[in-house]
Known about the structure:
0% strand
Amino acid sequence: MPDPIEAIKFRLEQRGEGKNALVGVIGSRTRVYEVLRRDRALSLAMIRRLNKRFRIPAEVLIRPVRMRKKKQAA
């Protein structure tokens, strides 16, 4: 099964839409970029809205997202 973030990006590409289409579905523009950069995991509410709006299967969206490694503070 595909990675949830890759599935979201693929669906946007299929529909000819940009990341701005996720504003309001995932949350604010800042929240959208946090999710797409893998800094923030998808919440259950986000998963439900993505499933309803973009018809991305919930089975794909509930899979664990490979989170970006945080930089260590010096």
